[in-house]
Amino acid sequence: MTLRYAMFIAVNFVCALAVSQANWPSFRGPYGNGHVPDYVRPPLRWSVKENVAWKVELPGPGNATPVVWQERIFLPQALDADGHQRALLCLDRNTGKELWRQVVHYPDKEPTHRDNPYCSATPATDGQRVVVSFGSAGVYCYDFAGKLLWRYDTGKIHQIWGNAASPVIHDDRVFLNCGPGERTFLVALRLTDGKEMWKVDIPGGKYGEKPSDWLGSWATPAILKTAGRALVIAAWPDFLAAYEPRTGKEVWRCEGLGKLVYTSPVVSPEVVVVSCGYGGPALAVRPEAQGNITANRLWRTEQRNPQRIGSGVLVGDYFFQPNASPGSLHCIEWRSGKVMWTERLGEPFWGSAVYAAGRLYMTDKRGVTYVVAASPKFELLAKNELDGETTHATPVIVDDLVLIRTWKHLWCLREPKR
User: Fold this and answer.
1) Which residue has the higher pLDDT, 354 or 305?
2) Closest by alpha carbon to 354, among 35, 32, 25?
3) CA end-to-end span of the chain, whole Å?
4) pTM score, whole prediction
């Protein structure tokens, strides 16, 4: 390789990295772990009268987090209470103006919970296409002008509490947890045309009358990249597993999860942490392994735990997990599982934690965003309210702005430029 060619590759790599860092392309941001680039400086404080760049009214409630690519925002939205009309909205990032919407009509009935409106899955984009899961209505891929490129038929995904797992793009593939319910599977689709590349069936189950009968995974898969390989990490009832992205072959599994898994695995080259819901356990495991690695877990919580729906974030030596019941945040030393602190903040947290500028941003069900120092010592930096609007979505942080999706509005928070 010539020096000139090597410099060309390096420059293009840096440019591509810079472009990807300026966006929020999927559920957990540009890195898939709740982190934003170091140069991002979001506002610390806001209210209905302070640091509001714009807000737009939405057609109805929803839990999906918006995704952002340069000047465009993509947001799924149910247009009716029965989920018969499911839409993808494209908005202008600078004004919130709707640029286009594509509507999918689904005539059948699909169960869900009142707190989980239809179209709860966050889209994913690679900068050319945007992929969205509409549950039993299927997976759809559009270009940035709103043209339908392909559709994948998932078949019925039926569970009494609905579905919420989001698609994830890695290289030329889309990965999706199609569940929960009696039919549950992990699928890899070719990004260019939606062709099914592989599918792994996961043991499902029927909703029972007793809490001991409840099971299912609403968890979005995570992509773990290390120096030697990439893995698709997925959390299921009773176990956590890693899959080879090209073939779907199971690389390792760790048993010991609970029956209900809402949070997504939080991954780094050093550790994978996952927290179950409805009082289930949390556990941590080293990701560089093969086969059944249950005996090699770093730790597993045995006592009854809080209800967890939103996903946590790893920062240095610590793991921070927001909780839905009660509305608290706890800090764990991830190597040992030692709880450094637990603090009750407010209402339950359904959204996930985001790490930016040395801070944790988390929005509770009443639309209050708590900004906390990402530290083994608890420090509340700000408490920002938005008129008590219900929200179950995760804050989106891009450059100098924060987007918060409530059941009434999409808010854009930004400090005025001086």
Assistant:
1) 354
2) 35
3) 47
4) 0.93
